[in-house]
Specification:
about 270 residues, mainly alpha, about 75% helix
């Protein structure tokens, strides 16, 4: 039986929770108060006035609806692509033997340390020569490619603890590599795949640099948010509205699929027990 937790643990957890919740509360309050009331701090109570002017301005002045659908389309397609390609690649690196397997895996894993800023410059030149600027492919390919390293690492880490007896039993029953993947490995690896999908969706939904450089007309919400923020404008109320709208969908996604996310973490860390 697990003993009673020390008293300091709830205190520390409560303090950390407050540290995370207070800024979110400040964003909500800033979005419904005039800018003049929040310039010196949203927590000031000497003059309280509530207004929805910022919400009206943001919806009427900026293409939030189209930005929402563009973000949803790009994040959804890239997430589905990663959830299809990554398990197959991780399975191949873990269970199949082919030339230069270890070398290729090392090269892919080393992409972990490669920042986006290093990749976007040659990519911009390549997309411009190929006529892909302002095309969804110019964003979808980097979305999937840049996350391929940590995605393979995540799923392969789970497959390292996968019972090899099941794979061998499939081979004895006549399953080839492809059939073994679809009928044995894939149905028993849904938890890390769901976790991968959540992380990939959040990565694509919040990405700013890639769509900012490669897209011109139909842009996702982070780019719209950058337009709202401007450079010298003190429109903190409109920025708060944009931040709230950008955060809603990832929050819903995480709340809906948090069991699968936690299941993937538990399966990876405790499968040997």
């Amino acid at each position: 039986m697990i003993g009673k937790a020390p008293r300091w643990i709830p205190v520390v957890v409560g303090i950390v929770s407050i540290i995370w919740i207070v800024p979110l509360l400040g964003i909500v309050i800033t979005s419904i108060r005039p800018v003049s009331d929040t310039v010196l701090g949203w927590w000031r109570l000497d003059h309280i006035a509530l207004t929805l002017d910022a919400w009206v301005k943001v919806w009427s002045k900026y293409p939030l609806a189209s930005g929402f659908w563009v973000s949803l389309e790009l994040a959804g397609i890239s997430t589905i692509g990663s959830m299809i390609l990554t398990p197959a690649a991780a399975y191949a690196f873990q269970f199949l033997k082919f030339p230069f397997r270890r070398t290729l895996l090392i090269i892919i894993i080393n992409a972990f340390v490669l920042p986006q800023q290093v990749v976007v410059i040659p990519l911009f030149t390549l997309w411009r020569q190929m006529g892909l600027i302002n095309s969804p492919l110019s964003v979808l390919i980097p979305y999937i490619g840049l996350s391929f390293a940590w995605s393979i690492f995540l799923v392969k880490n789970f497959l390292e603890d996968f019972p090899h007896e099941l794979v061998e039993a499939g081979r004895i029953d006549g399953c080839g590599p492809i059939a073994n993947f679809f009928y044995v490995v894939l149905p028993n690896s849904l938890s890390p795949i769901f976790a991968l999908g959540i992380l990939q969706f959040l990565f694509c939904w919040n990405s700013l640099l890639i769509p900012l450089l490669f897209l011109r007309t139909s842009v996702p919400l982070p780019v719209v948010f950058a337009q709202i923020a401007g450079v010298y404008d003190a429109n903190w109320d409109m920025r708060a509205v944009a931040a709230i709208l950008t955060t809603i969908v990832p929050l819903i996604i995480f709340l809906v699929f948090q069991r699968q996310f936690a299941g993937g973490s538990l399966s990876t860390s405790g499968s040997k027990e």
